[in-house]
Each structure stands twice: as structure tokens, then as C-alpha cells.
Design goal:
Blueprint lengths: L2 E7 L3 E8 L4 E8 L12 E2 L1 H19 L6 E8 L5 E3 L9 E2 L7 H11 L1 H8 L8 H11 L1 H6 L2 E3 L1 H10 L3 E3 H4 L5 E2 L4 E2 L1 H6 L9 E3 L4 E4 L2 H7 L6 E7 H8 L6 E7 L3 E7 L11 E4 L6 E7 L3 H11 L9 H10 L9 E3 L17 E3 L7 H25 L4 E7 L6 H11 L3 E4 L4 H13 L6 H8 L2 E5 L4 H26 L25
The structure holds adenosine-5'-diphosphate and 5-O-phosphono-D-xylulose (5SP).
């Protein structure tokens, strides 16, 4: 028997998952990351060496759980949180903490990029608008505000690719993750020399981009020793967590869509060609399946909304049960619609559909009779409403939505699954492998070493639907509540303007996109 290892560098932790050659998950271990640092409102940073520490813990734990030897693992696939700017010096050492996907400090850089390159041209070049979460604006922010740090930067890697570098010594990425940098020509599946030229960045900063199942290198002696595996074990490109997660859930052909509630929330549809929203409210990225693309809408704080409630207000006991289960049990006693309580989940600004880094969350409709359970139920519903905004855009774009599969930690909750079916007005399915992204990375590894001929075949053979929930009695109430939700953001925007007249106070004013005297020059 041969085995595959998928590693997913999430926001909350790094997961190592082992699949056998039939694609069955036989072990899964997670090591948590330190919570991301938010030294100012809207900032989000993590230490890349904490991801590596978590990887070194999770992989040996998964091997031990599976009762396997190092030699049993024939290939490794990587997946991870997207967009994060991991900045390395000439020796490959980390220059400063990584600015991660939900960091919102770069509105000035985005405005300047849009002004200089033009909104339409940006979409022509990269298939996407300039958004604060993407990698390029983060690079420009560091170049502008931290010239000393920037002067040392020689390489930019995405989070999972930093782990690849530690494992294999190779700097490489995959086309799905590269799509979220705003430096990638998504339609042509290659780095955009025009974007590099427009921002005076050298191509030498960027790693080579591979298709998801391609082998990018193999474990070095040092990398192998760190995780308890054999030197020479091949490592495939894998995918950004949403594309890899879609592979793990079998979302590989047009018509198949998944809704994932991790820290963020994502509605992801596979497409045969790059499908564009002219207003850029959803992202158009390469899929981890060669020759395919996807569109996705992103809620910044989906699972994060419930986590925030848990961390700030407690999970209501210490009976040894999963805290999220205790929380969702509290919400079970409350009827659909939460007796008029409504949550807008904009804790970290919002991407789809508002593209507004300065948006803020709100809880409205409270009365003295309401309980914690009402607030929790409102959070579950508000997150689903936010994902429904993405489905609404997909329908406007005529992207087919034939089957919806649920993923991420949020799919563990029966209540959240029912709320999603009710809000989307369509049945939702779950699949056997809960840990979609790590599983997808493992499947891509299997394709890379020839265990399956291609990704479609791997998914057809391995992915198994385990449950289906149909819209229930709550659907009609939630359809009405969704109308109230749609009215909430414009109203909040007006109030927000009074509360925070200078939304741009997230960062000092931008001077120029051009590098300063002490900043990066191409390597000789
Ligand atoms: N049993 C559960 N019930 C409801 N929500 C859950 C449960 N377990 C996890 N979650 C939600 O899932 C989120 C974590 O999902 P996960 O996919 O592990 O995130 P990430 O990949 O971003 O680290 C949590 O923040 C929480 O909101
Ligand atoms: O920014 C995106 C996708 O564009 C996020 O999906 C990140 O990739 C983080 O994912 P999770 O930690 O929520 O899995």
C-alpha cells in the first residue's frame, strides 16, 4: 500500500492529512497557529516560522496516528491560505511578519493601482480588480512604508510555498494561488510582465508557477528530517486553499459549486474558461485542475464571526465538548430568523459584494428578551446571507449552480448546514473528507505521481457524498430576512461615515507606487 500526504497551511492552523491509495483519509492531525496579530485596526500578520513549527508538529502526529513509516508516503501536496506576502531575503530568511489575506491596510495602494493602470486594463491583465487582500498591494505598502525592510527583500512567497521552500529548498507556486497576487495573467496562466513593469518590480522576486499536479521538487535531507519523512519524496505544486479544497470536494467541472466556511467564507464555482464579473465583485482565478478556471466570492469573516463570538463572549461552559457545538446548541432553541436579530459579518471589512475594506460588522434588532442563542443564530444566518450574495452574483453572471457542496469547519454543524440550505434555497451536500483543502492537496499529489491519470478521475474515484440537506421550514422566513440583510449595508455605510469619517485612517497617505531610492533592485 502507498500513501499520500496533504498539508494545508490554514489561518488557524496547519493540518497534515494522510490518504491511502483508494483516497480514504486514514489520519489527520492539526497544529494550531498563534492567532494572527492585529496591531492596528484592519491589520493582520502572522509569523511564517510559526507555520513551519506547526507543520513540523502536524506531519509526525499524522504519521504516528496512521501507524506508518516514513517510506510509506510516496508524494506530498501543499495547500494554504491565499494572498499572504511572505518576504524573504537573499538567504531565504523571513524579513518581517507576513501580511496575510485578511489584512486591509492597503486601500491607498489599491486606489493608486486602479488610477494608474486603469480599472478595465487591470481586469484585462489579471482578470481581477485591485483589492486590499491581494498580494501586490501588500508588497507596495511595505515598499512605501518600510523601505529598510523592503531593501532586504529578494523573494516573495505565498504561505504554503514558504513551507515548500523549507521542505524542498525550491521556490515555486501553483497557478491557482498565483492568481490571487494581482501579478498573474490568469487567462494565460503565467506571470504578467506588464504588471511587473507597471509597478517596477523585478520578475526575480517571484517563484516559478506550476499546474496543481506538477512535481515542483523533492524533500531535502534537512526538510525530511524536520517532518520525519524520507529525503527525495516528491512534492507537487498543489493549490491555494480554495482551489485545493474544491478538488477535495469534487468541484472540478462546470456546474459544481462549493460553499466553504473556514475563517473566511467562499462560494467557489468551477468554469471551463475565465468568467468575468465586470465589476470585479467575485474573483476569477485559475483552478488547480489544468486547463480550468474558477470564480469565487469571498466573505472576509465567516467562521471568524463565530470564532470572534466564542473568544470574546465565551462558549458557555467547560463540559469537555467542542466549544462550537455548545454555541450552536444554544442557537437551536431559537427559531429561523432569530426573532428579528440580524448580523452583518463585516469584522474585517468585506470583499464580495461590497469590496469595502472599511466596512464594519453590525448586530441589529436586539430587544431585552433576546438571548445569547439569538445572537449566535443571527451570526450563523448573517454569514449564510453574505454567502448568498455571492450566489446572487454567480446567477447574474450565468455561471451554472447545479450542485452545492459544503466545506470548512462550518460544515461540521448540522444547524449551519440547514441554515445554508434554507438561505440558498437549494439542497446542500457534504462529502466524506471534511478537511477538503488538505484532501485536495493529497489528491493532486496522487495525480502528480501517476496514481490517477488526471484530477477528474481522482475525484470521480475518491470523493463520496455523505449527506444531503434540503431547504426546510425556515426557508421562507430566511428569504424575507435576506431582504432586510440586503438593505443593511447601505444603511450601515451612512452610519459608518459618521463614526469613521476617515476610513483611510487604516494607513498613512500613499506617496507613490514607484520604489524609493533604498528599495529593491533586481538581483545582478
Ligand atoms: N463544530 C462546529 N460547529 C460550527 N462551526 C464550527 C465548528 N467547528 C469549526 N467551526 C467553524 O469553522 C471555523 C474554522 O474552520 P477551518 O476550516 O478549520 O478554518 P481555517 O482553515 O481558516 O483554519 C471556525 O472559526 C468556526 O467558525
Ligand atoms: O482569501 C481567501 C481566498 O481568497 C481565503 O480563503 C484565504 O485563503 C484563507 O482561507 P481560510 O483560512 O478561511 O481557509
Amino acid at each position: 500500500m502507498t500513501y499520500l500526504l496533504g498539508i494545508d497551511v490554514g489561518t488557524g492552523g496547519t493540518r497534515a492529512l494522510i490518504l491511502d491509495e483508494s483516497g480514504t483519509v486514514i489520519a489527520s492531525a492539526t497544529s494550531d497557529h498563534a492567532p494572527f496579530a492585529s496591531p492596528h485596526t484592519g491589520w493582520a500578520e502572522q509569523d511564517p516560522d510559526d507555520w513551519w513549527r506547526a507543520c513540523r508538529q502536524a506531519v509526525p502526529r499524522a504519521l504516528e496516528q496512521a501507524g506508518l513509516q516514513a517510506s510509506d508516503i510516496v508524494a506530498i501536496g501543499l495547500s494554504g491560505q491565499m494572498h499572504g506576502a511572505t518576504l524573504l531575503d537573499t538567504a531565504g530568511a523571513v524579513v518581517r511578519p507576513a501580511l496575510i489575506w485578511c489584512d486591509q491596510r492597503t486601500q491607498a495602494e489599491c486606489d493608486q493601482l486602479t488610477e494608474r493602470i486603469g480599472a478595465a486594463r487591470l481586469i484585462e491583465l489579471t482578470s481581477n480588480p485591485a483589492l486590499t487582500g491581494f498580494t501586490l498591494p501588500k508588497l507596495l505598502w511595505v515598499r512605501r512604508t518600510e523601505p529598510d525592510a523592503w531593501a532586504r527583500v529578494r523573494h516573495v512567497l505565498l504561505p504554503k510555498d514558504y513551507i515548500r521552500f523549507r521542505l524542498t529548498g525550491r521556490m515555486a507556486t501553483d497557478v491557482a494561488d498565483a492568481s490571487g497576487t494581482l501579478l498573474f495573467d490568469v487567462a494565460r496562466r503565467t506571470w504578467s510582465s506588464e504588471m511587473l513593469a507597471a509597478t517596477s518590480l523585478p520578475a526575480s522576486l517571484l517563484p516559478e508557477a506550476f499546474e496543481g499536479p506538477q512535481v515542483t521538487g523533492s524533500l531535502t535531507a534537512e526538510g525530511a528530517a524536520a517532518v520525519g519523512l524520507l529525503a527525495g519524496t516528491p512534492v507537487v505544486a498543489g493549490g491555494g486553499d480554495q482551489a485545493a479544497g474544491a478538488v477535495g470536494m469534487g468541484i472540478v467541472r462546470a456546474g459544481a459549486v462549493c460553499a466553504t466556511i473556514g475563517t473566511s467564507g467562499v462560494v467557489f464555482a468551477a468554469t471551463d474558461r475565465p468568467a468575468l464579473d465586470p465589476s470585479g465583485r467575485v474573483h476569477t482565478f485559475c483552478h488547480a485542475v489544468p486547463g480550468r478556471w474558477h470564480v469565487m466570492g469571498v466573505t472576509q469573516a465567516a467562521g471568524l464571526s463565530l470564532r470572534w463570538f466564542r473568544d470574546r463572549f465565551g462558549s458557555g461552559g467547560s463540559d469537555g465538548r467542542d466549544p462550537y457545538e455548545r454555541l450552536t446548541d444554544e442557537a437551536l432553541a431559537v427559531p429561523p430568523g432569530a426573532d428579528g436579530v440580524l448580523w452583518a459579518p463585516y469584522l474585517m471589512g468585506e470583499r464580495t459584494p461590497h469590496l469595502d475594506a472599511s466596512a464594519r460588522a453590525a448586530l441589529i434588532g436586539l430587544a431585552a428578551s433576546h438571548t445569547r442563542g439569538h445572537v449566535i443564530r443571527a451570526i450563523l444566518e448573517g454569514v449564510a446571507f453574505s454567502l448568498q450574495d455571492s450566489f446572487t452574483i454567480l446567477r447574474e453572471m450565468q455561471v451554472p449552480v447545479e450542485a452545492i457542496r459544503l466545506g470548512g469547519g462550518g460544515a461540521r454543524s448540522a444547524l449551519w448546514r440547514q441554515v445554508q440550505a434554507d438561505v440558498y434555497g437549494q439542497s446542500v451536500q457534504t462529502v466524506a473528507a471534511e478537511e477538503g483543502a488538505a484532501c485536495g492537496a493529497g489528491l493532486l499529489a496522487g495525480v502528480g505521481v501517476g496514481l490517477w491519470p488526471d484530477v477528474d478521475t481522482a475525484c470521480d474515484r475518491v470523493v463520496r457524498v455523505t449527506s444531503e440537506v434540503t431547504p426546510g421550514e425556515g426557508a421562507a422566513v430566511l428569504a424575507r430576512q435576506y431582504l432586510a440583510y440586503r438593505a443593511l449595508y447601505p444603511a450601515l455605510k451612512q452610519v459608518q461615515a459618521l463614526l469613521m469619517p476617515q476610513a483611510s485612517s487604516l494607513q498613512p497617505p500613499a506617496s507613490s507606487l514607484q520604489p524609493q531610492a533604498s528599495s529593491l533592485r533586481p538581483e545582478p
